[in-house]
Automatic annotation (TrEMBL), chain A:
Response regulatory domain residues: 2-116
The keyword Phosphoprotein is annotated on this UniProt entry: yes
Stored InterPro entries: CheY-like_superfamily, OmpR/PhoB-type_DNA-bd, Sig_transdc_resp-reg_receiver, WalR-like, WH-like_DNA-bd_sf
Domain named OmpR/PhoB-type: residues: 124-220
Annotated coiled-coil segments of the chain: none
Sequence positions bearing 4-aspartylphosphate: D51
Ranges of the DNA-binding region feature: 124-220
Keywords per UniProt: DNA-binding, Phosphoprotein, Transcription, Transcription regulation, Two-component regulatory system
Gene3D superfamilies documented for this protein: 3.40.50.2300, 6.10.250.690, Winged helix-like DNA-binding domain superfamily/Winged helix DNA-binding domain
Name used for this protein in its record: Transcriptional regulatory protein tctD
TrEMBL record, chain B:
Listed name of the protein: histidine kinase
Class in the EC hierarchy, top level: transferase
UniProt cross-references to SUPFAM superfamilies, sorted A to Z: ATPase domain of HSP90 chaperone/DNA topoisomerase II/histidine kinase, Homodimeric domain of signal transducing histidine kinase
Gene Ontology terms for molecular function: phosphorelay sensor kinase activity
Gene Ontology cellular component terms for the protein in this record: plasma membrane
UniProt keywords, alphabetically: Kinase, Membrane, Phosphoprotein, Transferase, Transmembrane, Transmembrane helix
Catalytic activity: ATP + protein L-histidine = ADP + protein N-phospho-L-histidine
Transmembrane feature ranges: 153-172
Organism from which the protein derives: Falsiruegeria mediterranea M17
InterPro entries: 2CSK_N (IPR013727), HATPase_C_sf (IPR036890), HATPase_dom (IPR003594), His_kinase_dom (IPR005467), HisK_dim/P_dom (IPR003661), HisK_dim/P_sf (IPR036097), Sig_transdc_His_kin-like_C (IPR004358), TCS_sensor_his_kinase (IPR050428)
Subcellular location per the Swiss-Prot or TrEMBL entry: Membrane
């Protein structure tokens, strides 16, 4: 996905940029509303992440202008304000969703996908490899032309593997991506999800190899 | 108002007595003048002839005493202090000075009379004789006149009182009525409404309204300031927390060594914990404020819960949890949507926290017998020994300070329910899982 981050705090922006890049997204950064308008005018974005308190104005003013123009790029507001009233305010102004700082990136991604799914006609980015067609936003998977119903965690596990075929993922690393940090995760749970994924991928040329003591790897069998 | 009418009554009484007193004086003076004239003409008619006093009572002396009420007249004639003729009891009634007419009010035969005594010295051939005449007249005509004057004075007093009372009623209702209207418009205002008062008021009340407006203005300013302060404080705390959390997550992606990863995970957990606690404390403060000045809007509980469920769906999905909404398609209710959303959100948050992956959270919204929202999960349920303490703790009103964390979520739900005249009920389902019912 291609994001535009509008955030004036440089440290936070860097942290988000590095986390998003690592997750395989493309992300541009605007430090104020003026820059943001310039970015939106020239680039195509799947989603805008918008801070509310910015040096040259209120993010909600930008939101209003953005909604008044023809651009329908979805916007997720990042709010550091305390809760309720502000959340409702930004949704009323035309934000598609909001997250409260500090936020879980997995939650932000989940919300981004949900927002994009709601928009008809978003730019589809599908991954095609070894008889598998995968649309991470819609959560659609077809294996050998057959549509496969998958649960969310299975989808995200598959996305991880498909983004880096041939790379070894330790069980802990996978657990961190699939579970929230306050869940107690047994290694067994990861094996269960990997097992399900293997069943889904059986008709394709893809397979997941277990490397004892190291983790798992997605292989493309020619 | 009462003071004004009381004052008018006192004034009317004073007026009545003053008029009456004055009338008595004037009437008495009139009678005295006639008596004086009458007695003078009688004395004028007295002559002395060869040592005998002759007195032809002149007709005019009595005719001038005639009144409409047929007042009776008494007289007594004395020579050198010795009774000659007339009514003797009149002569003994008082001790009079020989000179100058003297007036006195006394009683004769049970009737009040006004008596005059006057004397004249007659000089004969070689003697001097003092003739003294007492003349008395009953006061029937006078008292009749006085009665009439009293009646008129009383009428005047009552009239004055009525007019004063009506005027004071009008005056007070004109000002107090305006004050009342102002009071109503102050009372009716919602907690957020701090606009100045612009309704027209009488000139006398302009200073009051303008000082009220300036107070409201200052209040508005200080509320805005404290709201801005809280927003700014939250911003300053949350932004660095967000920075740390994002870096920690990014670092966790790169680090392979398990003990370092564990440290990063603990760090993220601690950040989440502190931001959740801060958020809930701020929410709790906001809810306490709003609950004190509950603003009720017409809402549909089912719609409110379904909006909330939709909004929480992405988070539920991350855990492969599904949220199922059941119950009545429309439950109209009058309440504070912000508070109710917050309460239900806390219940769903708890259910998502304890519900196992690939299970469902069931939310039932029903309107009868009373509006209820029930949130159930398939988690381990409340510990049996704690369900009692949790319930009793909420019955006697929870203390926010001893229940930070998920407990504060239940406290918030409880506070919101109580503000709407309801409560929450905790139970474990027979088939497993916890249920919290928020009734309104």
């Amino acid at each position: 996905m291609k994001f535009l981050l509008v955030e004036d705090n440089q440290d936070l922006a860097n942290a988000i940029l590095s986390r998003m890049t690592m997750a395989g997204h493309v992300i541009d950064h605007a430090a104020n509303l003026g820059d943001a308008s310039a970015f939106v005018a020239t680039g195509q974005y799947d989603l805008i992440l918008l801070d509310i308190m910015l040096p040259d104005g209120d993010g909600r003013t930008f939101l209003k202008q953005h909604r008044a123009s023809d651009l329908d790029t979805p916007v997720i507001v990042l709010t550091a304000r305390s809760q309720v009233s502000d959340r409702i305010g930004s949704l009323d102004m035309g934000a598609d969703d909001y997250v409260t700082k500090p936020f879980d990136h997995a939650e932000l991604e989940a919300r981004s996908r949900a927002v994009l799914r709601r928009k008809s006609g978003y730019a589809k980015t599908t991954i095609e490899i070894g008889g598998v067609v995968f649309d991470p936003v819609a959560g659609h998977l077809t294996v050998g032309g057959e549509e496969v119903q998958m649960r969310n965690r299975e989808l995200r596990l598959l996305e991880l593997f498909l983004n880096a075929p041939g790379q070894i993922f330790s069980k802990n690393k996978l657990a961190d991506r699939l579970f929230s940090y306050d869940d107690d995760v047994s290694e067994n749970a990861i094996e269960v999800y990997v097992g399900r994924l293997r069943r889904h991928l059986k008709p394709s040329d893809l397979s997941i190899t277990t490397l004892r003591g190291l983790g798992y790897r997605l292989d493309h069998d020619e | 108002m009462l003071t004004l009418i009381g004052g008018a009554a006192v004034l009317a009484l004073i007026l009545f007595f003053a008029v009456r007193n004055y009338a008595v004086q004037v009437a008495q003076q009139g009678q005295d003048t006639i008596l004086d004239a009458s007695v003078t003409s009688m004395l004028d008619a007295a002559t002395i002839q060869d040592g005998t006093v002759e007195l032809d009572l002149p007709y005019a002396a009595f005719s001038m005493l005639a009144t409409s009420a047929d007042d009776r007249v008494f007289y007594a004639i004395l020579r050198d202090g010795k009774f000659l003729s007339g009514y003797e009891e009149l002569a003994t009634a008082g001790n009079f000075l020989p000179d100058s007419p003297v007036f006195q009010t006394s009683q004769i035969r049970g009737a009040p009379v006004r008596t005059i005594s006057a004397s004249r010295t007659l000089i004969g051939a070689n003697e001097r004789v003092d003739v003294q005449i007492f003349l008395a007249q009953t006061q029937d005509a006078l008292s009749e006149t006085l009665d009439q004057i009293s009646r008129n004075a009383a009428l005047l007093g009552v009239g004055f009182f009525t007019l004063a009372a009506v005027l004071s009623f009008w005056a007070t209702s004109a000002t107090i009525g305006q004050l009342g209207k102002l009071t109503t418009s102050v009372t009716r205002r919602g907690p957020q409404d701090l606009r100045p008062f612009t309704k027209p008021v009488p000139r006398e009340m302009v200073p009051l309204v303008s000082s009220l407006n300036s107070l409201v203005g200052r209040l508005d300013q200080s509320l805005t300031q404290s709201e801005d302060f809280i927003a700014e404080a939250a911003h300053r705390v949350r932004t660095p927390l967000a920075t740390v959390r994002s870096y920690a997550e990014a670092t966790l992606q790169r680090v392979d060594k398990e003990e370092n990863r564990e440290a990063m995970r603990s760090m993220i957990k601690a950040i989440d914990e502190s931001s959740r606690a801060a958020g809930q404390l701020l929410d709790h403060a906001m809810i306490t404020f709003r609950a004190d000045h509950l603003e009720r809007d017409a809402i549909d509980l089912t719609e409110l819960v379904s909006d909330l469920a939709q909004r929480l769906a992405p988070i539920a999905e991350m855990k492969d949890l599904s949220i199922a909404l059941r119950g009545d398609p429309h439950v109209p209710y009058s309440g504070d949507p912000v508070l109710l959303q917050n309460a239900v959100r806390n219940l769903i948050d708890n259910a998502m926290k304890y519900g196992p992956a690939e299970s469902s959270i069931e939310i039932t919204v029903s309107g009868k017998p009373k509006p209820q929202i029930m949130v159930c999960d398939h988690g381990p349920g409340f510990p049996e020994n704690e369900i009692e303490t949790l319930t009793t703790r909420f019955q006697r009103g929870a203390n926010a300070t001893d229940s930070i964390g998920s407990g504060l979520g239940l406290t918030i739900a409880q506070d919101v329910a109580m503000a709407h005249g309801g409560g929450i009920h905790l139970e474990n389902r027979l088939e497993g899982g916890a249920c919290v019912t928020l009734s309104l």
